[in-house]
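Are you able to produce any protein sequence you like plus the matching backbone structure tokens because I've never seen that pairing?
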Amino acid sequence: MTELHREKLINIVANAALESRLVEIAIREGATGYTVTDARGGGASGTQYGVFDSDSNIHFMMIAPDHLLQRMLDELSVMIRKGHHMVVYVSNTEVLRKKNQAPE
């Protein structure tokens, strides 16, 4: 039977200028992986077209074991309180990976 590993999927939509900071958090706090894509859309902060660097957003996704979630959210909350515009949403996920890649 195929074994799936239960983890958290943390999705962040933020200004592209925050990408390196988000990568630092992911690595430092023990994310088992992350993916970054360009993002366009609209919401309470207006419409983001991604035409100019100052207008570009990213969709940053990282996977982490349940026990690391709160530390990551604490760091992201600090960034939000400092005025960085981002939306963070978390969901349960199950990951299929090689046995030696499974988090401890």
